[in-house]
Amino acid sequence: MTYPDPDFDMALPATYPHPMKEIIRYGGCFVCGDQNKFGLQAKFFDNNGEAVTDVVASPAFEGYYGIYHGGVLASLLDEVMIKAILARGVFAVTAEMTVRFRRPVSIGEKLKITGRIVSRKGRVYATEGTAAGSDGTVFATAIGTYLEAREDLKSRLVRSLGK
After folding, report:
1. First CA to last CA across the chain, in angstroms?
2. Are 141 and 115 spatial neighbours (Cβ–Cβ below 8 Å)?
3. String of b and e for 127-139 (b: at least 16 CB within 10 Å)?
4. Residue closest to 133 by CA, chosen among 109, 100, 116
5. Which residue of 10, 11, 64, 81 sits 20 to 30 Å from the alpha carbon of 18, by its own alpha carbon?
6. Dihedral angle at the C-alpha atoms of 124, 130, 131, 137, nearest 10 degrees?
7. CB 134 within 8 A of CB 110
8. Distance, CA of 54 to CA of 38 (rounded, Å)
9. What is the model's pTM?
10. For residues 125 and 67, is the Cβ–Cβ distance under 8 A?
């Protein structure tokens, strides 16, 4: 299988019935950066309050033979949860995240990664994320706590988006 899979439209998945707006990204990011040749280059979209992306488990990110690396899957879950916040125009950073791996992801598997905000209290956001196969099989779930950046850090984050 080639990566990205030419038969898998990662930009606008057919499973979504309406056009979606792409969520802003930093070009050098390992997960979403379109200028990071070593990264995943995943595109994240706002789907009625949920952040979503579709990716193919590439052999470039293999852990054991034929199995997608769990750390890469955790990175995707972290990114999709923070993108749910960023889609609201809020710049935040990860404070805590817990991932529950339910089953291994085989190389070549098409994954739908979703994240959403569960609650907010002041500057603290609680989120949840899911990584599932195209048949609905859940491979991993995550919960995260994110902290809205104060002005000094926010300005650094905003500046990075122009790069």
Report:
1. 31
2. no
3. bbbbbbbeeeeeb
4. 109
5. 81
6. 170
7. yes
8. 18
9. 0.87
10. no
